[in-house]
Structures are given as C-alpha cells and as structure tokens.
Amino acid sequence: LWSQVLERLQLELSRPTFETWIKTASAERLEDNCLVIRTPNPFARNWLQKHYIRTIANVVQDIAGHPLEIYITVKGGDEDSELEEQQAAWELEVPTPVTEFIPKNSPKATQKTNDLNPKYVFSRFVVGVNSRMAHAASLAVAESPGREFNPLFLCGGVGLGKTHLMQAIGNYRLDINPNSKIFYVSTEKFINDFITAISKGMQNFREHYRTADVLLVDDIQFIEGKEGFQEEFFHTFNTLHEAGKQVVIASDRPPKQIPQLQERLCSRFSMGLIADIQTPDLETRMAILQKKAEYENIRLPRDVIEYIASNYTSNIRELEGALIRALAYISIWGLSMTVENITPVLEPPIEKIAATPEAIMTIVADAFKVSHEEMKSASRRKEISWARQIGMYLMRQYTDLSLPRIGEEFGGKDHTTVIYSCDKITQLRETDKEVAKTLQQLCDRIQINTRKRN
Ligand code: ADP
Ligand code: MG
C-alpha cells in the first residue's frame, strides 16, 4: 500500500517537497483502520501534520478504498521522548530544570526529583581546543569526585557549555549510582531557598544542602554582594569539602573578578581547579552543529553547516537556535536545505545598523593611524594586520556584506581570512578588557557616524 501511496504523492506534490519529507518517511504499521507514518525527525512530522495530512489521507483513502486514520510519528523512541525532542527543537532554549528545595516535612519530600537535564551528558559535548581543559577536568571529577579538583570552578562566557558540563558530571554520577545525592542548583534559587530558610528556620535548608554527595552550583556570579548568603555558603562549602564531597561551581568570570566576593570565599573557590571555556573556533562550531543534527536525525549539507557556523561565533546557544530556526523554516515551507533557502531566517545576532564599508574603513584607519591602502595591502606588519582584523570584524557586525565581499573590501582577501579575523576579535572581545574597550569606542563612533548620515 505504502509504495502505491508514494507513487501517487510523487505526482501530487512538488519535487522538493516529496524528496525532502515524504521519501524519508515510511509506513510502519497498518492495523484495522490505522496507518502509522514514521518520519525521521520531529520537523518532518510537524510539517507533514500541518500541511499535508489531508493530501496523504485522501490518497490513502483512494488506494485503500476506505478512509484510514493516519498517525504521523517520529522514528525511534516512544511518544514521550518524541515530545521532548520536539519541544527541544521548537523552543529556542529549553529551560533547565532546577532542584526544588523541599522542606523535609512536606509530602513531596520523599518523591525523587530529577534536577538534571538528561541531554547534558558528556557524549553530547563536543570537545574543542576551547574547552579541552574544562572537559577533561569535568570528566576527572565525574570519575572520582572529591579527589583531585575540589572545587572545580568552571568559567566562561554565556552559552559556552558550563551548565552542560556541570550537569554532565551529575548525570555521570547518577548513572553509576542512582542513589547518590546530586544537587544541581542555580545561585538564584540557592539564595531564594536561603531567604526562605531565614524565616522558616535554617535546619532543613542546612540538612538539605550539606548532605550532598556532589553539589553543583551554577552562575555563582550572582552571589555578588549577598553578604548573608556568602556567610552561609562558606559554611556549606566547608562542611562538604571537609567530608570529601565534591563541589562544582560555574561562573561567567573567574572568582577574582566577581565584585564584592568575600576574600575567604574567593580563596576557597580558587583552591581546586579553575578551568575556563573560551569561544569555540569555526571547526568546533561546525562539529557541534553536525552532532546536533545527528541527534535530530537530520542530514545537513556541509556548506549549510559552514554557513551557520560562520555566522554565529560567540554563543553556542545562539548557534543551536539558528540551526533550529533554519530547520523549522525549511520544514514549514517545504524547502530543501540549502544556504540560499535558510538565509532569511538567520538574522544577524547583533542589531545591524546600515553603516557603509567606507565609513568603517575610515573610522578604523583613523583610530589606528594606518592608511586605507595599508588596510587593503598584504602587509603583515603588526599594527596593520591588527587594524585589518578589527575592520573585518566591524564590517561583519555593521554591514550586510557577505564574507567574500568583506574580503574584497580589504584588497581581495579570502573569506576564510575574514572568518579567522572575526573569530579572533570575538574571542578577544570577551577575554581582553583593553580590546573590549577599543571595540566599544569604535562601535560608538560608527553608530554616531551612521546616525549623522541618515
Ligand atoms: P552556559 O551555561 O555556559 O551559558 P550551556 O551549558 O547552557 O551554556 O550551553 C548552551 C547550549 O549549548 C546548550 O544547549 C548546550 O548543550 C550547548 N553546548 C554548549 N557547549 C557545547 C559543546 N561543546 N558541545 C555540544 N553542545 C554544547
Ligand atoms: Mg549556564
């Protein structure tokens, strides 16, 4: 029956539609009046459901001679995981569940809460040079908690995988021993629990947090200036540490750079290992997209991967979001996955004001005291190539020029050179205060200049 249905659908639907979505589906089951169509991924399922269920039903009815109920599902996995997958695919950011702090005497207390996202496991983490150290340290901690690196302090910019790694430690421990007490808590939640405990009594709070086998505290930078909580956390930390329990802390910056952090806490945070995660290079970003696509059962052409990866450089959450938007878009419109087709949904991550390449060139040349000719030359003199890299980065930020076109603006440089420059500056912007300041000044000048012109 299914092959007959396919034949007919091939005639009724456009070729890309058929090739992309129908051909990859299969009919798995025919019972009584039910036909189950399995699609390789949630996008295909959604799209078929939304746009073509009627067409398919009509064709099926024609061929079978009577109407059938049609169910479209996703290959592999039960309905639950399928739903979850779909949710993950359609929401730009899956909220991370956090530990409920449940007072002992509440009825929920015996109920086991799973506070970890099951997707945040080591096998789903792509290791690049940017995260090698943090990954290795996390793995070491997962294998022998409370030993070498205690605490493990993970730091790095937003969306670079800190939460993923820290929860991977928890998931790994739970795999080994489902009864171990793994507490994952955001600092905000931790502070709220503390505030509640102040009025209701500290005992439950302490019993809860001080009996962890592994305590994972996320986004500790929010501890800034919270004196009372810092005091309490200091004791929690010591209790756990002395008992040989593992503490893992994540932060968007190193302990020394958290303002108003008590000196003694700062030194506690630094006594294990501080491992940082940098922004990933192009190759790593491509590998991350590749892996993500594999999990979604989607084949992505290499140029599409490269295109998305070169447009989102500094935040993996945004990178994943872009992929998800692209997938949703082509699935809704029944397009094939090509660079051209997905361009409209890959909005530049930073608001682009229409600055001209000339204006940017002039502003950068002035700022670094180099000439336009030098910017366009092949000179590798340090100041010149620095100005050139900054120029490329700013042009990427503030114009709609493609990477090859930016290369042309700089005297015909290859687009890989442009990608390299953008990556480098993006990274420095986050790690080097001086560079960040310089860039801020240049951005201001570009914006002022552009506003005057418009
Ligand atoms: P952070 O806590 O540093 O802000 P997250 O851990 O929440 O970042 O990561 C953001 C998203 O990017 C998550 O969906 C995570 O799974 C994904 N991610 C981050 N780093 C990697 C990586 N190296 N490999 C695969 N996915 C990653
Ligand atoms: Mg996080």
From TrEMBL:
Main location: cytoplasm
Annotated GO biological process: DNA replication initiation; regulation of DNA replication
Keywords for this protein: ATP-binding, Cytoplasm, DNA replication, DNA-binding, Lipid-binding, Nucleotide-binding
Residues annotated as binding ATP: 159, 161-163
Superkingdom of source: Bacteria
Compartments, as annotated in UniProt: Cytoplasm
Matching PROSITE patterns: DNAA (PS01008)
Domain spans labelled AAA+ ATPase: 148-275
Cellular-component GO terms for this entry: cytoplasm; plasma membrane
Classification via InterPro entries: AAA+_ATPase (IPR003593), Chromosome_initiator_DnaA (IPR001957), Chromosome_initiator_DnaA-like (IPR020591), Chromosome_initiator_DnaA_CS (IPR018312), DnaA_C (IPR013159), DnaA_dom (IPR013317), DnaA_N_dom (IPR024633), DnaA_N_sf (IPR038454)
Domain Chromosomal replication initiator DnaA C-terminal: 356-425
GO MF annotation list: ATP binding; DNA replication origin binding; lipid binding
Region (Domain I, interacts with DnaA modulators), start-end ranges: 1-89
Region Domain IV, binds dsDNA, residue ranges: 331-454
Keyword Membrane: no
Keyword Cytoplasm: yes
Coiled coil: none
Domain observations: Domain I is involved in oligomerization and binding regulators, domain II is flexibile and of varying length in different bacteria, domain III forms the AAA+ region, while domain IV binds dsDNA.
Family of this protein: Belongs to the DnaA family.
Subunit-level organization: Oligomerizes as a right-handed, spiral filament on DNA at oriC.
Protein's job: Plays an essential role in the initiation and regulation of chromosomal replication. ATP-DnaA binds to the origin of replication (oriC) to initiate formation of the DNA replication initiation complex once per cell cycle. Binds the DnaA box (a 9 base pair repeat at the origin) and separates the double-stranded (ds)DNA. Forms a right-handed helical filament on oriC DNA; dsDNA binds to the exterior of the filament while single-stranded (ss)DNA is stabiized in the filament's interior.
Record's protein name: Chromosomal replication initiator protein DnaA
Gene symbol of the encoding locus: dnaA
